[in-house]
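tool=predict chain=A
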Amino acid sequence: MFIFFFVIYAKFKIMQIIGYILIIFAVADFGLSWLGYKLTPFLPPEISRFSPIVIGLIGGFFVSQGEKKEQANEY
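tool=predict ok
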């Protein structure tokens, strides 16, 4: 039983960690784009402009879902 709860807890923590990594990547992508460096050179320029916004939103979604699931499991 303990292992089951540990796996669920670890799953939500991993979601939050991935979310924070994506948010950090989005901030770095935005900041470095002002300096002329592209972290997403494989994307077309039209899409690359909006990649920090999209990546940051996905990261925020992961963080919020991980927190919601953690709170739901506490009760």
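The CA atoms of residues 46 and 57 lie 18 Å apart. The two ends are 17 Å apart (CA to CA).
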